[in-house]
Specification:
Blueprint: H1 6-19, E1 25-30, H2 39-48, E2 53-58, H3 65-70, E3 74-79, H4 82-90, E4 95-99, H5 114-124, E5 129-132, H6 138-146, E6 152-153, H7 156-159, H8 168-176, E7 182-185, E8 193-196, H9 199-211, H10 221-224, H11 227-233, H12 257-290
Parallel strand pairs: 1-2, 2-3, 3-4, 4-5, 5-6
Antiparallel strand pairs: 7-8
Helix pairs in contact: 1-2, 6-12
Length: 298
């Protein structure tokens, strides 16, 4: 969570409300940490701020669901597997964000990419889901929709926008990086995280190699704790582990958020109207040449 205290979250909610009359949501991440955040107080700030959508991530939000639902809040839970998505559906989540292995942050331990995970989610779920991990442009959106998602969720891509409240070094690092520049850390601790490689991460990887299966989170405290302010605020790109998706390989500019969204929507329509329509025409021609009955394209 980017807001260090419930009071700061309340101020950020108020600031957002001053900037727009459109709906907006808040993320609550339940992950192992050195100091447990005061989640009930965060939820109180969300309720008092009139927020009606909460995205939860990490551990199950089940213990907080009664309070969130009683406040009329829609809950979208991030899941890295079909089984976790089904559990989220069972406990009353209104939707899920299905995170493929490509995603930045915590991709789970199953290593299933979205080309498999999204169709599987579509086969099993009754509630809506959005695609997360590897999402950056119109191609991502159209592909996600074709595999059954109701939309897409972007993380790393939004960091590389003019409005993102992070140091310019972070944005430039995302533009310069390729899809080969992320690595997985903390696998032995079963708290796997995909991060952008840097000197601090190299130190972390060396500690992991030395400790092997005996690795404890305390062993890498220096490389993972308190890193985000050093990176995101101070611009120290070698400070340690910070989440970054493989999608960094297709990030080539730093637009405004409006420019990014407008481009995605315009190009999505072009793909659907031109490329996919042309593909359908070719498919029909192939069917006619093969003299297959209608509806049989095998």
């Amino acid at each position: 969570m980017t807001q260090k205290t419930p009071e700061l979250l309340a101020k950020e909610i108020a600031r957002c409300r001053d900037m727009t009359d459109k709906p907006f949501g808040v993320n609550l991440t339940f992950l192992p940490s050195f100091t447990a955040p005061p989640y009930p107080e965060y939820i109180a700030a969300i309720k008092e701020g009139g927020v009606k959508v909460v995205e939860t991530a990490g551990r199950s939000p089940e213990q907080y669901m009664p309070e969130l639902k009683a406040a009329g809040i829609k809950v979208i839970h991030e899941c890295t597997s079909v089984r976790h998505s089904l559990k989220a559906e069972k406990i009353g989540c209104d939707a899920v964000s299905v995170d493929g292995f490509e995603c930045g942050g915590h991709p789970g331990e199953d290593d299933i990419p979205n080309m498999i995970l999204l169709p599987r989610a579509a086969d099993e779920l009754k509630i809506p889901f959005v695609a997360s991990g590897g999402m950056a442009d119109a191609r991502s959106l159209v592909a996600a929709l074709s595999m059954g998602a109701a939309g897409m969720n972007m993380g790393t891509r939004f960091i590389a926008t003019k409005e993102a409240p992070v140091h310019a070094n972070v944005k430039q690092a995302l533009v310069e990086a390729t899809e080969l520049d992320t690595v997985l850390v903390m696998r032995a601790a079963r708290n796997t995280e995909r991060v952008l490689r840097n000197k601090g991460v190299d130190q972390l990887l060396e500690i992991e190699r030395e400790k092997g299966g005996k690795l404890k989170i305390e062993d890498i405290h220096e490389q993972v704790a308190g890193v985000y302010p050093k990176v995101m605020i101070d611009g120290d790109m070698d400070a340690g582990a910070w989440s970054c998706g493989m999608v960094v390989g297709v990030i080539n500019d730093i637009p405004t958020v409006k420019e990014l969204i407008d481009r995605i929507m315009t190009e999505s329509e072009q793909i659907i109207r031109k490329r996919l329509t042309a593909s359908l025409t070719r498919l029909c021609q192939m069917r006619q040449r093969a003299r297959l009955p209608d509806g049989d394209i095998s």
